[in-house]
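Check this.
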Amino acid sequence: MTANHTTAESNTQSISAQALTQFCDDYLSTSAFKDYAPNGLQIDGGRPIQRIVTGVTACEALIDAAIADNADAIMVHHGYFWKGEPATLTGMKGRRVRKLMQHGISMIGYHLPLDAHPISGNNAKLADMLGMTITGALYPTESHPVGNIATCTPQSADDLISTITQALGRAPLHISAEYHTDASAQTNGRLIERVGICTGGAQDMIEQAASMGCDAFISGEISERTTHSARELGIDYFACGHHATERGGIQALGEIVAQKFGLPVTLIDIENPA
């Protein structure tokens, strides 16, 4: 677990959970999205917010860290109440919600709006970290695209692997556009310049990236089928980690909140190899 503190002028100011959520809702244009979970205030801790913790996922370890930090609110990318999950507050989810309520901590989550934001979104921040420039949408008809196309200096797959490893602190799993029977020969002589990007679990957008003329596609996860898709579509694929690719957006949102309201915001990164 690592913590990154965003400093503020004082800790005497406060804001209501509703006012903080309204600001973030407006900034991220949440009303424009049909999502898999509610965006915004998911749990109201019932007290003014003076200290905020941010993180990728509202797991119990993050909640414990927020309690230790005396935080009044947690802001995350992966919150609760996903479509298809049991509605009952029992077991693991019950323990999480109980801790939040017992300590008066509000929980605010933003999923697709935090992927798509053109400045503070996960895709935008990942492109920045990799020295790429976003030029358009992976699906051109989307007004708030959750997947993007970016350009970079023409480079080999090996060079891009090195850049990703340095930026994210972990080596990506690379599937070459060219099939090799020798697993040690996974890189190829092609140069990569046009790249599809969609963080998290977007590996199945690889076909769209290929249809849009991308040389490579970057996401977080990989499925068994993704390997065959990359080889048959002739596109390099880089699985960089769901968690690792989605740290940037929530950190950026926390920095904006700290600057706007003068509140201390701490990014707490709960290690996750997935």
Summary: The radius of gyration is 19 Å.
